[in-house]
Design a protein that fits this description.
Blueprint: E1 4-5, E2 10-14, E3 21-27, H1 37-47, E4 64-68, E5 70-71, E6 74-75, E7 80-85, H2 107-114, H3 130-148, E8 151-159, E9 162-163, H4 174-177, H5 187-202, E10 209-216, H6 230-239, E11 244-249, H7 260-263, E12 267-270, E13 273-276, E14 284-285, E15 288-289, E16 294-300, E17 310-313, E18 319-322, H8 333-356
Helix pairs in contact: 1-3, 1-8, 3-8, 6-8
Length: 359
């Protein structure tokens, strides 16, 4: 199993959904960087369950503890280990489903690959694994912000068939995103999205959605062609998040319908640097950041575990009627926002350190 991500700024997550704890080890964090648990907790609070009726009611405070790599508020350059205890464990909720692979979940594939699996809550395939990513992402984000003033903001741009209007990405901020529980910065659309998720929850069903993200103030030159292009690393990072099914950057799939004359981004002078008049490239050209905002979108499928009765088969191939138990999000995108931000920060922190080696 691969639980490590990154080349120089490298993270390894650990823990299962209903084990004693989950966490992460960050290797390659630069020394003498200010870092405290408070710098990390804010993002974990945005990811944690039980924030509203739109999320799972699992009751977890998700308080982070820094175990190593920091002394007197500064990083030491040694591995930064962080842990979050699982307080509200209920593995018994899954006992009746232990011999039934949940449709579109990872139960069957994990069992086939390893010959064993964590039957309670999905183990490593659970979104609870992303706690380590978010904690590590907060460290990476602090490095990027302190060095270049990088700002990374994600938001919910679609839930089911409800899509928000295109926003002003230059003005997008986390306070604006967090004004609504659904994390859509457009109030009218947010209300419609909230109603759609509540309806899915009340019928024991689920909904998918899209999280958009902008990364501002990234320096030009980040990315390692030909295989570790910036957008390729972003795609790998985003598609490693549980429940993701699609990734597009800049004009994305819509760009395939345009002509080159309309899609090209003309260069213009922007103060002391060269910039582009438009940004169909999404801030990356030739696999390397060009100094414009990096803009991308990530598609999330509806959560696989639903309470609605489903006709399926158990591991022996016998027909069975499954009504899944446990506590699950009717839609993952509100809590996926800080996860997307974290993975973007990890990608660019790693690429920044790789670029620094050239100087």
């Amino acid at each position: 199993m691969s639980s490590t991500f990154g080349t120089l700024f490298k993270i390894t997550t650990f823990g299962e959904s209903h084990g004693r704890a989950v966490g992460v080890v960050v290797d390659g964090c630069p020394p003498r960087m200010p870092l405290s648990e408070a710098d990390i907790q804010g993002q974990l609070d945005r990811r944690r369950p039980g924030q509203s009726k739109l999320t799972t009611d699992r009751d977890e405070a998700d308080r982070v503890t820094i175990l190593s790599g920091v002394e007197n508020g500064l990083t030491l350059g040694t591995p930064v280990a962080m842990s979050v205890a699982n307080r509200d464990q209920r593995p018994g909720d899954y006992k009746t489903m232990s011999n039934i692979p949940r449709p579109s979940h990872a139960d069957y594939t994990y069992q086939m690959k390893y010959g064993i699996r964590a039957a309670s809550g999905g183990g490593r395939s659970s979104a609870r694994e992303t706690i380590g990513r978010v904690a590590a992402g907060a460290v990476a984000e602090s490095f990027l912000a302190n060095t270049w003033g990088v700002e990374i903001v994600a938001w919910v741009s679609a839930v089911g068939e409800v899509q928000a209007p295109e926003p002003d990405t230059e003005a997008m901020s986390r306070p604006a995103v967090d004004k609504t529980p659904i994390r859509c910065p457009h109030p009218e659309t947010a209300e419609t999205m909230t109603h759609a998720v509540a309806q899915a929850r009340d019928t024991a069903d689920s909904l998918g959605g899209i999280v958009s993200c902008v990364c501002r103030n990234l320096p030009p030159g980040l990315g390692e062609p030909v295989f570790d292009k910036a957008e390729a690393m972003l795609a790998q990072a985003m598609l490693s998040i549980p429940a993701t099914k699609g990734f597009e950057i800049g004009s994305g799939f819509c760009g395939s319908t345009m002509r080159g004359s309309g899609h090209n981004d003309p260069f213009v002078a922007k103060g002391k640097r060269l910039g582009t008049a438009t940004n169909f490239s999404g801030g990356i050209q030739g696999g390397i950041t060009n100094g414009e905002p990096v803009i991308f979108r990530v598609a999330f499928k509806p959560p696989a575990t639903i309470g609605m009765a489903q006709e399926t088969a158990d591991f022996n191939g016998l027909p069975v009627r499954l009504e899944a138990k446990g506590r699950h999000d009717p839609c993952v995108v509100p809590r996926a926002v800080p996860i997307v931000e974290a993975m973007a920060a990890l990608v660019f922190a790693d690429l920044a350190l790789r670029q620094k080696m050239r100087s």
